[in-house]
Amino acid sequence: MTYSKEIAEVEGSPMEMLVFEPEGDGPFPGIVVAQHIPIAHMGLEKDPFQIDVGERLAKAGYASVTPFIFHWWAAEEDLAVKREEFRDDRAVADIDAAFGFLAAMDKVDAGRVGIIGHCWGGRVAWLGACHNADLKAAAILYGGRIKVGMGEGSVPPIELADRIACPVIGVFGNDDQNPSPADVDDLDAALDDAGVEHQFHRYDGAGHGFQNFADENRYRKEATEDSWRKVIAFFDQNLK
Length: 240
Fold this sequence. Notes:
With 240 residues, the chain is of the alpha/beta class. The chain is built from six helices and eight strands. It has a single domain, classed as 3-Layer(aba) Sandwich (Rossmann fold). An eight-stranded mixed β-sheet has the order 1-2-4-3-5-6-7-8, with helices on both faces. The mean pLDDT is 95.
Protein backbone atom coordinates (compact mmCIF):
# COMPACT_ATOMS: atom_id res chain seq x y z
CA MET A 1 0.00 0.00 0.00
CA THR A 2 1.37 3.40 -0.95
CA TYR A 3 0.45 6.82 0.31
CA SER A 4 1.07 10.38 -0.75
CA LYS A 5 2.32 13.34 1.25
CA GLU A 6 0.53 16.67 1.18
CA ILE A 7 0.91 20.01 2.96
CA ALA A 8 -1.86 22.16 4.41
CA GLU A 9 -1.31 25.66 5.76
CA VAL A 10 -2.83 26.12 9.21
CA GLU A 11 -2.65 29.68 10.51
CA GLY A 12 0.54 30.17 8.52
CA SER A 13 2.20 26.97 9.70
CA PRO A 14 2.77 24.16 7.16
CA MET A 15 1.25 20.86 8.32
CA GLU A 16 2.35 17.61 6.70
CA MET A 17 -0.35 15.03 5.98
CA LEU A 18 -0.27 11.43 4.81
CA VAL A 19 -3.03 10.49 2.36
CA PHE A 20 -4.17 6.89 1.85
CA GLU A 21 -6.65 5.87 -0.84
CA PRO A 22 -8.32 2.52 -1.60
CA GLU A 23 -8.01 0.98 -5.01
CA GLY A 24 -10.79 1.89 -7.42
CA ASP A 25 -12.64 4.98 -8.58
CA GLY A 26 -14.79 5.74 -5.54
CA PRO A 27 -16.39 7.80 -4.26
CA PHE A 28 -15.17 6.40 -0.95
CA PRO A 29 -16.05 7.31 2.59
CA GLY A 30 -13.24 9.14 4.35
CA ILE A 31 -11.65 9.13 7.79
CA VAL A 32 -9.46 11.73 9.47
CA VAL A 33 -6.78 9.97 11.52
CA ALA A 34 -5.59 11.80 14.63
CA GLN A 35 -2.02 10.65 15.31
CA HIS A 36 -0.80 9.07 18.51
CA ILE A 37 1.90 10.86 20.48
CA PRO A 38 4.95 8.57 20.06
CA ILE A 39 5.69 10.23 16.73
CA ALA A 40 5.34 13.80 17.94
CA HIS A 41 9.12 14.19 17.77
CA MET A 42 9.75 11.94 14.74
CA GLY A 43 7.22 12.77 12.06
CA LEU A 44 4.47 10.68 10.51
CA GLU A 45 6.48 8.29 8.37
CA LYS A 46 8.77 6.87 11.03
CA ASP A 47 6.16 4.96 13.01
CA PRO A 48 4.96 1.62 11.59
CA PHE A 49 1.80 1.65 13.68
CA GLN A 50 0.61 4.97 12.30
CA ILE A 51 1.26 3.80 8.74
CA ASP A 52 -0.61 0.57 9.49
CA VAL A 53 -3.71 2.50 10.55
CA GLY A 54 -3.90 4.25 7.17
CA GLU A 55 -3.23 1.03 5.28
CA ARG A 56 -5.78 -0.90 7.32
CA LEU A 57 -8.47 1.68 6.64
CA ALA A 58 -7.65 1.76 2.92
CA LYS A 59 -7.97 -2.02 2.70
CA ALA A 60 -11.37 -1.69 4.35
CA GLY A 61 -12.45 0.80 1.67
CA TYR A 62 -11.74 4.15 3.35
CA ALA A 63 -9.67 7.07 2.14
CA SER A 64 -7.88 8.74 5.03
CA VAL A 65 -5.76 11.74 5.89
CA THR A 66 -3.37 11.73 8.85
CA PRO A 67 -2.28 15.27 9.80
CA PHE A 68 0.92 15.90 11.77
CA ILE A 69 -0.60 17.95 14.58
CA PHE A 70 2.77 18.73 16.19
CA HIS A 71 3.89 20.95 13.31
CA TRP A 72 3.66 23.98 15.61
CA TRP A 73 7.05 23.15 17.16
CA ALA A 74 10.51 22.57 15.75
CA ALA A 75 11.17 18.88 15.20
CA GLU A 76 14.01 18.88 17.72
CA GLU A 77 11.90 20.47 20.47
CA ASP A 78 11.60 18.28 23.57
CA LEU A 79 8.46 16.13 23.72
CA ALA A 80 7.73 17.37 27.23
CA VAL A 81 7.53 20.92 25.88
CA LYS A 82 5.13 19.85 23.15
CA ARG A 83 2.90 18.20 25.73
CA GLU A 84 2.99 21.22 28.02
CA GLU A 85 2.33 23.79 25.30
CA PHE A 86 -0.31 21.80 23.41
CA ARG A 87 -3.39 23.88 22.62
CA ASP A 88 -6.85 22.60 21.88
CA ASP A 89 -7.70 25.50 19.59
CA ARG A 90 -4.76 24.62 17.37
CA ALA A 91 -5.71 20.93 17.40
CA VAL A 92 -9.22 21.83 16.24
CA ALA A 93 -7.76 23.96 13.44
CA ASP A 94 -5.52 21.07 12.38
CA ILE A 95 -8.40 18.59 12.30
CA ASP A 96 -10.59 21.03 10.39
CA ALA A 97 -7.83 21.51 7.80
CA ALA A 98 -7.41 17.76 7.38
CA PHE A 99 -11.18 17.31 7.15
CA GLY A 100 -11.41 20.02 4.50
CA PHE A 101 -8.64 18.45 2.44
CA LEU A 102 -10.17 14.98 2.69
CA ALA A 103 -13.71 16.13 1.89
CA ALA A 104 -12.45 17.95 -1.22
CA MET A 105 -10.68 14.90 -2.67
CA ASP A 106 -12.14 13.71 -5.98
CA LYS A 107 -12.56 10.13 -4.77
CA VAL A 108 -14.15 11.01 -1.43
CA ASP A 109 -17.82 11.44 -0.59
CA ALA A 110 -17.77 14.57 1.60
CA GLY A 111 -21.00 13.50 3.25
CA ARG A 112 -19.46 10.32 4.63
CA VAL A 113 -16.42 11.33 6.68
CA GLY A 114 -15.50 10.14 10.17
CA ILE A 115 -12.58 10.44 12.57
CA ILE A 116 -10.40 8.02 14.53
CA GLY A 117 -7.59 8.46 17.02
CA HIS A 118 -5.43 6.39 19.35
CA CYS A 119 -3.83 7.58 22.60
CA TRP A 120 -3.25 11.34 22.30
CA GLY A 121 -5.13 11.09 19.03
CA GLY A 122 -8.11 9.55 20.82
CA ARG A 123 -8.45 12.76 22.80
CA VAL A 124 -8.04 14.83 19.64
CA ALA A 125 -10.67 12.72 17.86
CA TRP A 126 -13.14 13.39 20.68
CA LEU A 127 -12.25 17.08 20.52
CA GLY A 128 -12.70 17.13 16.75
CA ALA A 129 -16.12 15.51 17.02
CA CYS A 130 -17.14 18.22 19.50
CA HIS A 131 -16.26 20.97 17.02
CA ASN A 132 -17.15 19.55 13.61
CA ALA A 133 -20.81 18.67 13.13
CA ASP A 134 -20.07 17.33 9.63
CA LEU A 135 -18.30 14.27 11.02
CA LYS A 136 -20.54 11.24 10.75
CA ALA A 137 -18.72 8.82 13.09
CA ALA A 138 -15.97 8.99 15.73
CA ALA A 139 -13.73 6.24 17.09
CA ILE A 140 -11.95 6.97 20.37
CA LEU A 141 -9.25 4.45 21.24
CA TYR A 142 -7.88 4.78 24.78
CA GLY A 143 -7.80 8.57 24.58
CA GLY A 144 -6.50 10.10 27.80
CA ARG A 145 -6.88 13.60 29.25
CA ILE A 146 -10.37 14.06 27.84
CA LYS A 147 -11.33 15.40 31.26
CA VAL A 148 -8.64 18.11 31.04
CA GLY A 149 -8.55 21.21 28.84
CA MET A 150 -5.25 22.07 27.17
CA GLY A 151 -4.25 25.64 26.43
CA GLU A 152 -5.30 28.87 28.09
CA GLY A 153 -9.07 29.25 28.27
CA SER A 154 -9.77 25.78 26.94
CA VAL A 155 -12.66 23.67 28.20
CA PRO A 156 -12.21 19.99 29.12
CA PRO A 157 -13.49 18.08 26.07
CA ILE A 158 -15.68 15.88 28.26
CA GLU A 159 -17.73 19.00 29.01
CA LEU A 160 -18.41 19.46 25.29
CA ALA A 161 -20.02 16.04 24.82
CA ASP A 162 -23.37 17.62 24.02
CA ARG A 163 -21.82 19.11 20.88
CA ILE A 164 -21.03 15.69 19.38
CA ALA A 165 -23.41 15.16 16.48
CA CYS A 166 -22.35 11.65 15.42
CA PRO A 167 -22.24 8.12 16.85
CA VAL A 168 -19.14 7.22 18.89
CA ILE A 169 -17.26 3.98 19.49
CA GLY A 170 -14.82 3.77 22.37
CA VAL A 171 -12.11 1.13 22.87
CA PHE A 172 -10.29 0.86 26.19
CA GLY A 173 -8.00 -1.42 28.18
CA ASN A 174 -9.01 -2.17 31.75
CA ASP A 175 -5.36 -2.04 32.88
CA ASP A 176 -4.98 1.51 31.54
CA GLN A 177 -4.57 4.45 33.91
CA ASN A 178 -4.92 7.23 31.31
CA PRO A 179 -7.81 6.84 30.85
CA SER A 180 -8.47 4.73 33.91
CA PRO A 181 -11.59 2.55 34.11
CA ALA A 182 -13.13 5.27 36.31
CA ASP A 183 -12.33 7.85 33.62
CA VAL A 184 -14.02 5.65 31.03
CA ASP A 185 -17.07 5.45 33.27
CA ASP A 186 -17.15 9.26 33.30
CA LEU A 187 -16.86 9.45 29.50
CA ASP A 188 -19.66 6.91 29.17
CA ALA A 189 -21.85 8.92 31.53
CA ALA A 190 -21.11 12.19 29.72
CA LEU A 191 -22.23 10.71 26.41
CA ASP A 192 -25.31 9.22 28.07
CA ASP A 193 -26.22 12.59 29.56
CA ALA A 194 -25.69 14.29 26.19
CA GLY A 195 -27.84 11.74 24.38
CA VAL A 196 -24.98 10.73 22.08
CA GLU A 197 -25.34 7.28 20.52
CA HIS A 198 -22.28 5.30 21.55
CA GLN A 199 -20.79 1.90 22.28
CA PHE A 200 -17.83 1.25 24.56
CA HIS A 201 -15.69 -1.90 24.50
CA ARG A 202 -13.31 -2.70 27.35
CA TYR A 203 -10.62 -5.37 27.41
CA ASP A 204 -9.24 -7.19 30.42
CA GLY A 205 -5.49 -7.75 30.47
CA ALA A 206 -4.92 -4.79 28.14
CA GLY A 207 -3.41 -1.44 29.02
CA HIS A 208 -2.69 1.80 27.25
CA GLY A 209 -1.63 1.46 23.63
CA PHE A 210 -2.55 -2.22 23.43
CA GLN A 211 -3.10 -2.06 19.65
CA ASN A 212 0.45 -0.85 19.02
CA PHE A 213 2.29 -3.89 17.63
CA ALA A 214 5.50 -1.84 17.52
CA ASP A 215 5.60 -1.90 21.33
CA GLU A 216 5.96 -5.52 22.44
CA ASN A 217 5.31 -4.71 26.08
CA ARG A 218 1.95 -3.11 25.37
CA TYR A 219 0.66 -5.08 22.39
CA ARG A 220 -2.20 -7.51 22.98
CA LYS A 221 -2.96 -9.47 19.83
CA GLU A 222 -6.40 -10.87 20.63
CA ALA A 223 -7.76 -7.59 21.99
CA THR A 224 -6.31 -5.76 18.99
CA GLU A 225 -7.91 -8.04 16.42
CA ASP A 226 -11.28 -8.03 18.16
CA SER A 227 -11.33 -4.26 18.65
CA TRP A 228 -10.32 -3.54 15.05
CA ARG A 229 -13.19 -5.76 13.86
CA LYS A 230 -15.58 -3.77 15.99
CA VAL A 231 -14.20 -0.41 14.82
CA ILE A 232 -14.39 -1.30 11.13
CA ALA A 233 -17.92 -2.68 11.58
CA PHE A 234 -18.88 0.59 13.31
CA PHE A 235 -17.52 2.67 10.44
CA ASP A 236 -19.17 0.40 7.88
CA GLN A 237 -22.52 0.88 9.61
CA ASN A 238 -22.24 4.65 9.85
CA LEU A 239 -20.23 5.61 6.75
CA LYS A 240 -21.23 2.98 4.21
